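REQUEST ID: PR-0412
SUBMITTED BY: lab tech R.K.
PRIORITY: routine
TASK: structure prediction, single protein chain
INPUT:
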Amino acid sequence: MGKRKAALSGQLADLDLRLLRVFKAVVESGGFTPAEVELNLANSTISNYISDLEKRLDMRLCNRGRGGFSLTDHGKVVYEATQDLLSAVDQFRNRVNISHERILGHLHLGFAEHMLGAYRSCIIEALRLYTEKAPDVRVRITSMGSDDVVPAVLDGRVQIGITVTHRSIPELDFMPLFDEEMSLYCAKDHPLYNRDDSNISTGELQRFKFVESPRLMPGREVDPVMSSWNKHASAHHQEARAALILTGHYLGFLPQHLVKNWGWLTEMRPLMQDRFNYSNSFSAITKPYPENDLVIGTFMECLREAVANETN
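STATUS: complete
OUTPUT:
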């Protein structure tokens, strides 16, 4: 019996690297359909890429179909090898960047939704500086729910995340950026809209329905009384939460800048601000990165410069 022919007997080509990047994104997204947004590709295109990679490697990498997405044993080996390979490619690029005094590569940022509304100067100034310092880097920005940013950084889907931070995480580095003011809102069709705050008791609030948001989850409440509120609906994305509040049937928390920027100052009003207003603290978060990683390090420098310019 002859020896089995090696699937990769020749050199790795740019196409191979692209196929491996697609494969990595599919695995980390949990399937073809979830990876569509991540890759900005149609499901059929992703399927073709994975089929091409399987033919190139002469092995089946994943199971897909009614039973859902899962890796084969070969797929698990290839995924681990892909992580090592792409990491080595990034290290190579970083060393070339340093010697060439030119920054090359890709930067994937994960932003909590709607955070740019009130803080354009800080983030946009950092992006402006970065574009000037690293014009050849391809920047990609993905918006996501605030609670989704940390997992995206931890599992490597994004290199830098900007989101609300409630606690420190040993595996991540944090850079404080700015605060966001939050208020409890009711819409004009709600029974409390025309009531003066002085005539509303905290006990009376328990009669009404609330939209659960991240800071209304058990253990995250900013005021003990919130634990007894009737969280009748859940909407952790602010636009969906606002839609429920605007029905007049729910109370819920929204950023003050979002209500102002979307022109809702007459459609809803804040309740009992002295008691229930609170601040969200945003930070830039990364996994520890090598000093010679110019793609990430330069953007973090730009953020520091942008924050310093705001405070001066």
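NOTES: The radius of gyration is 24 Å.
REVIEWED BY: pending
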